[in-house]
Amino acid sequence: GINAEYGVVRDDMDSEGVRGGPGPVMPLRVGICDIDAYDMLFYSHYIRYNERAANHAVLSEPEPGAVGTRLVRVPVIKFLKSVRWPVTVSIVTSFVSSDPSAGTCTLLHDWLSGGKTMSRSLAEYTCPSEECPHRRLLPQVEERQVRLLLHDAKQTYQDVPLSSQSAHVAYSDMLDSQGSVSSRTVLDLMEQQRTDLIGGQHTLEQLKRDGVLVVVHSITGLTFSGVPVSLHEQVLCMSGYTVRDNKYFCVHQRCAREDGELIAQAGMMLVFVRDGAVVEAPDCVAL
Fold it and tell me: Are 263 and 257 in contact (CB under 8 A)?
C-alpha cells in the first residue's frame, strides 16, 4: 500500500516556520492496508512513516559505517486533519536539536496534502553517528514553532491513576530487530485497552452506526525504553483515564515487562466526532 519515491520539497510544499530552504520529502500514497474502519490512516502509521522519513534523510547520503536511526520518544504528535485512502501526502522532515551526550536528535515532521498541514509532530531518534548528520542535511526549524508544539507536550496525563491492566504473551512478530517490543505492537496493545475502557468492540460498532467516530486527537510523551523482552514473556499493558468537559477522553497508558521494567508509556487524547464536530461522549460509552 506504499508508494514512497524520495525527492525534494517544491516551493508550494514548504512547511511553515522552517529556515534554510526546502528539506527532503517522502511522498506517501495511503494504501488500503493502512486504513482503519473509518477509511482513515491508522494513527500508529504516522509514527511508523515518520521514522522511515527520518531514516531517508541520513541514508540518502550514507557515511562509512552509517546505520539507520531509531525512534526513542515522541514528545508530541497532533492530528490536525484526517488522512484518508487513497490520498497522497508529503512528509517533510526538519531539524530541531541534538543531544550529543545522549546520542539523540529531535526532528519535526509535517504531513502536507493539498496545501494543508494534516499532522505535525516532534520525534526524538538515535543519532546514527557521533556527529549528527541530520543537523547537516536538514533545514532548521524556527524556535517559535517548537515552543507551540511543546506547550501541548506538557499534557502527559501521568497524574491519572492506572486502573486497568491486561497481560499479553510476547511472540516473535511483536519484537523488533533489537529484541524490544516494536513501536507498532506497543501502540496496538494500547489501542486494544482503550477500546475496552470505553466499552469494548460492541460500543465502537454502536457509535459507528450512530455516525460517531472515536478519533485520536493528540499523543504526548510517547517514550520507548528499548529494554529487551524474551519470547513468551508476559507484557503488561496498564491504562487510566479522565474525561475533561465531557468531551476529551484523556488516557495515561504504560507497557511493562513482568518485572515492572518500563517498555513504553504515553498520554493520549481522544475525541468523539459527529459530522466533523467534536461532541460530548455518547450515553453508550462506559465512562
Answer: yes
